User: Which sequence fits this backbone?
């Protein structure tokens, strides 16, 4: 198990994890929103 | 898998607030990307460099009221195939355009027929209220008359363009080749010459495909069909004095 306490002891690690979280969340939600809207438009006209 | 999950769970829990924060911020750009891909013709024309079609669309009334995806639909797997074709065998216009563009009626009907239920094809800048205000062809005498009749002419989609004809700058007019009897479609009159895509004005050449025996005298040749008959396609049925 990753020892979170040890990792988070360093301020630099905390920042890196938070920034990574923001980037992953940002890209993930942008991709999902795009995909959902795109499929909503494409699927009714010819399906897969 | 369980072990791995246990290993990263604390890290993920620590990340959750930033994931949510990033996710919320990502909604807007995600929507903007969709809007650009689906609703902005600039996205399509960055790859689809087809001079006649783009110029034809830009000069038509459709340019301000529609985008590419209002009419151009295809199944999901075709988007993947398109990307592969673009990379492996990029088609060149006009030498690789071997067919006459054919538009199924339901695409036109979404905007140009009154009380049309299926507006799912329309994604452009027009609201439903705006679509309701558009000219409805089922309410005009001559359009109605054409819808009630049938023709034996082949559908535009059934014509293939010979290689030698594709390269010329001369408009390609579909022949009078006959097939099975079928209802008259929008494309029969509004398809335009085949290599002038997105030119949806009804041309005299479309009238002549069926009405070649009319007005053989000087008047027909000099004035064409639309100078006299155009208004009958526009006047609403109820207000038509000839009714």
Assistant:
């Amino acid at each position: 198990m990753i020892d979170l306490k040890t990792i988070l002891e360093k301020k630099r690690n905390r920042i890196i994890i938070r920034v990574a979280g923001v980037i992953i969340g940002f890209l993930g939600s942008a991709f999902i929103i795009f995909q959902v809207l795109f499929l909503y438009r494409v699927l009714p006209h010819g399906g897969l | 898998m369980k072990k791995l999950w246990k290993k990263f769970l604390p890290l993920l829990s620590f990340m959750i607030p930033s994931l949510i924060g990033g996710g919320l911020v990502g909604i807007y750009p995600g929507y903007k990307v969709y809007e650009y891909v689906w609703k902005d013709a600039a996205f399509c024309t960055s790859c689809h460099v087809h001079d006649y079609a783009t110029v034809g669309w830009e000069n038509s009334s459709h340019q301000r009221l529609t985008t590419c995806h209002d009419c151009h639909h295809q199944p999901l797997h075709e988007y993947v195939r398109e990307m592969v074709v673009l990379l492996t065998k990029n088609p060149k216009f006009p030498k690789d355009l071997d067919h006459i563009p054919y538009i199924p009626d339901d695409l036109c009907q979404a905007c140009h027929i009154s009380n049309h239920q299926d507006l799912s094809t329309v994604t452009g800048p027009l609201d439903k209220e705006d679509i309701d205000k558009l000219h409805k062809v089922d309410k005009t005498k001559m359009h109605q008359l054409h819808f009630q009749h049938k023709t034996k002419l082949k559908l535009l989609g059934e014509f293939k363009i010979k290689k030698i004809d594709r390269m010329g700058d001369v408009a390609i007019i579909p022949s009078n080749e006959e097939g099975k009897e079928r209802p008259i479609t929008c494309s029969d009159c509004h398809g335009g010459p085949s290599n002038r895509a997105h030119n949806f004005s009804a041309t005299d050449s479309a009238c002549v495909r069926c009405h070649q025996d009319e007005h053989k005298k000087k008047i027909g040749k000099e004035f064409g069909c639309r100078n006299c008959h155009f208004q009958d396609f526009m006047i609403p049925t109820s207000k038509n004095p000839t009714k």
In short: The interface with chain A takes residues 6-8, 10-11, 14-27, 29-31, 33-34, 37-38, 69, 73-79, 120-121, 123 of chain B (CB under 8 Å).
